[in-house]
Amino acid sequence: MTAEMDAVSPPSRLAEPEEGISAEELQLAARNHGLPLEALRFDVTPPGLHYLLTHYDIPVVDPDEFRLVVDGLIDTPLSLDLDAIRNRPRVSTVVTMECAGNGRALLRPRPVSQPWLVEAVGTSRWTGSPLAQLLREAGVHNGSVDVVFTGADHGIERGVEQNYQRSLPVTEAMREDVLLAYEMNGGPLPPQHGYPLRLVVPGWYGMAHVKWLTGINLVADRFDGFQMHAYSLRQQPEEHGVLLTRIEPRALLAPPGFPDFMSRTRVLRSGRITVEGRAWSGWAPIRAVDVSIDGGDTWTSAKLEPAPHRWGWARWTWIWEATVGSYLLSARASDRSGRSQPVDQPWNRGGFANNLVQRVPVAVIS
Prior knowledge:
mainly beta, Sulfite Oxidase, Chain A, domain 2, Immunoglobulin-like, six-stranded mixed sheet, five-stranded mixed sheet, 5 helices, 22 strands, 36% strand
């Protein structure tokens, strides 16, 4: 199977109106996992709770044999082992990372793929070396347009055999906060999060943060690889689509009370309740969070704490005098760029960037 098959391979199909989750989707859901929403109470997500999406297999990379190859339109091609990377200038950045498909399973019609609800998110402290400094030392040519990143994970997607590859425009790759990361929350990268080296692009959806990074290539044209087409916003299968980049604003609430095992409906005692959660955006800092108890018909302002890190999430709280009854709790974030979460689904064929407001059924008992 080769890349030439891409021209005839169909995009992800849409589920029929009454079609349930397939065995294939369950298999994906068992391999990948979201953040348990009660873990929103952590400022930094423990690695085992951070959301995870692995396209193919988790590759086994021998750290002694590892090399990061930097080539293409540069003055000095490089082949760096892990010691050479770790001996470079070291910085740490707290970043909230979200899968571009977060919320996909809530869409109607439902795109058939990894069936995310709203839990595909996490916040970690990533440590590594700035990519921009390495590129400056390599000498990027003036004619360079894109920087292509290649991971060691290999598989077949829609008939196309490939290593996972994504690109950034040179201007984005030269941002000082883009990292070649080798630590997560103070420890070595876990295997599932890209050991021994991954890319971290603050503010961008997770598809840009290439794991198991082995290659960086400077090219003269816009990179037209498979994953660039796969992660695009389109309404019809024949559309080229708009490339996904930065994370749309979102607020999630840490579910109050205690859950029903199967339905996950929340149950809590009446009285004074502190409802809390987190909010983030890749476009601009969060400006406000509003909360609703009636599914979005009416809204009340929550108290928003300043985010302690530019690319990390912000905590918000709201005091609720809860009385006996049934409620539908929602949270809505707005950022300083003017973007806000919609109350109606922003549908597209891939189920991407769906930042529809969260709705949590709650039963208040005496």
